[in-house]
Amino acid sequence: MKNLLILGAGTAGTMVANQIRKTLPADWSTTVVDPEPTHLYQPGLLFLPFGARDEAQMQKPRAKTLGSDVQWIRKSVELVDPDKQQVVLADDERLDYDLLVIASGSSIRPDETPGLLGPHWHDSVHDFYTLEGAQRLRDSLAAFEGGKLVVNIVEMPIKCPVAPLEFLFLADDFFKRRGIRDRVDLVYATPLDGAFTKPACSDVLGYLLEEKGIRLETEFNAGAVDGDARILRSYDEREIPYDLLVTVPTHMGAPFIEASGLGDDLAFVPTDNHTLKAVGHDNIFVLGDAANVPTSKAGSVAHFQSEVVVDNLMRTIQGRALHKGSDGHANCFIESGNGKALLIDFNYYVEPLPGHYPLPGVGPFTLLGESRLNHAGKLGFRWLYWNALLPARRLPVGNRMSMVGKKTIKLNGKKADAAGADERETRAA
């Protein structure tokens, strides 16, 4: 019996396991390793700080998210030994593999920033990228009566790059509904040179920050936090005082990646942008947050990548050439407050463009434009996640970005459209 071993049972690992179990040859088994008993719907964390109390609907027992013929080992991974084709678990148990998929995600590392952890953590300094953090922040926001609320990204990359902005947009709406918006100063401190990671978004959506009275501090590289004085300091000695700090700490890959020598400086695995094969390893594939490919660390990316990984796993088993099928496709709903949201759709080659998704002229979702239907789409995605994405049911949306329904815009005085994108993708493939 040959073994496909998948490290991580989050969004990426679960989708790969549930897809490939339907096509694997009879002499192959599928084993998933993950120590956590519960699968968490991470997009729901954004809404908890603003009063949502639907934690029960955000979690499911891990065993119920994996197919019955997928073996789940509830242990931590200590090390991957590519030479021996073995994975070492926390109790020194060793698992042999013929093919390995690394889908171990990323996690926040507040310990990487001096002063971030300590007596002020989850008191005047919060995160919302963990369940506990979002719950504790919910209590703090409910009691907050005014002052300076600072949202800071320590460094990129992070999971869901638009989430910090969504938090600020929802905070603006939250304090308006409480009648204290005039007593709250909202500040966004980012290491980027603009509010959005994509220039097209900054050009088209920059009005939202001005409209909502959010002050922007760009190229702010957080170096330390003085919790007693409530001051956030950058490496170039700029200071931002705060009453409440909402931090998006450094994100890093799983510790076993660093211990195995498989990762970069942040323990993300160097990965071929198009085949999703680990660089230098013919029988290891990587997807989701664990990969260092230049696209968003978001659930939609993991979804689109999973189809490419499953295809290339089968090609490897059959001795066929790998398909360069990943184009970095990502799409994301962006909550903008007041029951509205935006939608962006992009890939390695094409900036987010206006138009309709997924059907041209029909949508039903609007690209780069606010609508209540987009907001409904974001809320409704949770049902789709549990009932279609994780069980690996086929959806009428391809893994590669479609240029249909998108419009031309000018970006920094130059035309930004889909022209030439197909040609670039063809050359890459």
Kindly describe this structure.
The protein is an alpha/beta fold and 429 residues long. The protein folds into 3 domains: 2-106 and 253-317, 3-Layer(bba) Sandwich (FAD/NAD(P)-binding domain); 109-250, FAD/NAD(P)-binding domain (3-Layer(bba) Sandwich), CATH 3.50.50; 330-428, no CATH class. Helix content is 25%, strand content 26%. The chain contains 10 helices and 26 strands. It has a 5-stranded parallel sheet with strand order 5-2-1-9-20, with helices on one face. Strands 11-18-12-13-14 form a 5-stranded parallel sheet. Strands 6-7-8 form a 3-stranded antiparallel sheet. Strand 7 (86-89) and strand 8 form a beta hairpin. Helix 1 runs parallel beside helix 8. Residues 418-429 have low confidence and may be disordered.
